[in-house]
Amino acid sequence: MHELWITRLFNEYLAGPANAALALAGLHAEEKPWSNYMTMEFLVVLILLLIPLILRASISVDRPGKFQQIFEVIYQFISGFAHDIIGHGSHKHVALFGTLFLFILISNLIGIVPSMESPTMFAPVPLGCAMLAFLYYNFHGFAAQGFVGYLKHFAGPVWWLAWFIFPIEILSHSIRPVSLTIRLFANMLAGEQVTVAFLALIPLVAPVVFMALHVFVAFLQAFIFTVLTMMYVAGAVEHEH
Predict the structure, then answer these.
(1) Exposed/middle/buried for 121, CB within 10 Å: 0-12, 13-18, 19+?
(2) ∠ at Cα 112 (181, 68), nearest 5°?
(3) Interacting residues of 126 by C-beta distance below 8 A, sequence separation 6+
(4) What is the dihedral of CA 156, 159, 161, 166, to 10 degrees?
(5) Residue 35: how many CA atoms within 13 Å on its side-chain side?
(6) Where do the domains of the chain lie?
(7) Per residue in 46-94, pLDDT tens?
(8) Smallest Cα–Cα separation from 75: which of 226, 231, 228?
């Protein structure tokens, strides 16, 4: 696999810390422990950490700048969808939804930058996001309804069919991280491969068309992932009447 310039720098100067982390996990040290998706993911996290610092330095109530207005629109967008889907108490989850949306969106879009790659077109990154969503909604399901109350959700509304519904529901929930991972990973990988193929065939026209398509898919996949997470949280915390 082609090694990006940023990955080369990480392997040259930060191989020691990476191998130390591998040793703590009981894994063998490698000559090049950093892969492209790891360095790209690290860069995306760094961008996410810088965003609030930049906003805090220029935030204004009377004269909000364009950067502030963009993130106010994103917040209202995420908050509004969360309220529509979850209802009362949705504000408690907006921080996670917003973080997931921005992380996936920036990860999707960073592949447009020359000499960069979208980390979401590598399965471990979408899988990490999917496992976070899975653990999050189940944790809040148990927290909101208690151990027994949450397990009743898996048994269905008819008690005498619980023996049949329960294993089906457990299987359905277990598949959710897989479906979230495959949906995001497959769409981003396919989009990248199609763009590269058409750039080779039609280098003059394809860039504009397929870059626009890439941006659209990047927003769409971040939106779908976030909304599905909202729906999972809503189903976990809702109380049956």
Answers:
(1) buried
(2) 90
(3) 120, 180, 181, 182, 184, 185, 188
(4) 50
(5) 10
(6) 1-34, 37-237
(7) 999 999 888 887 787 778 888 888 999 999 999 999 999 999 889 999 9
(8) 226
